[in-house]
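Weekly puzzle thread! Below is a chain. First person to post its structure in token form gets bragging rights.
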Amino acid sequence: MNLRERVEQALDTIRPYLETDGGNVSVEEITADNVVKLKLLGACANCSMSIMTFKAGLEQAIKKAVPEIVSVEAINITDMDDPNATTPGL
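Winning reply:
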């Protein structure tokens, strides 16, 4: 099983919970230096809890299942520590 398949398999353990709330996630890229770039989809893309979902759920599931992954990034959410961050929907 290649690296992408293993990442997808890890995400499949989280997807049912995302789908229950009308969301999902897609793997956009795995870089040469083993950084996974994810895109949050549906309700996850504009949920105010998306950073927590990302850090506590997606990132941890991937790193636990695929230890070679050095970092996981969401390409469509803003870091909550960013001074320019806004709460979606407000």
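Puzzle host: Confirmed. Bonus trivia for everyone else. The longest helix spans residues 50-65.
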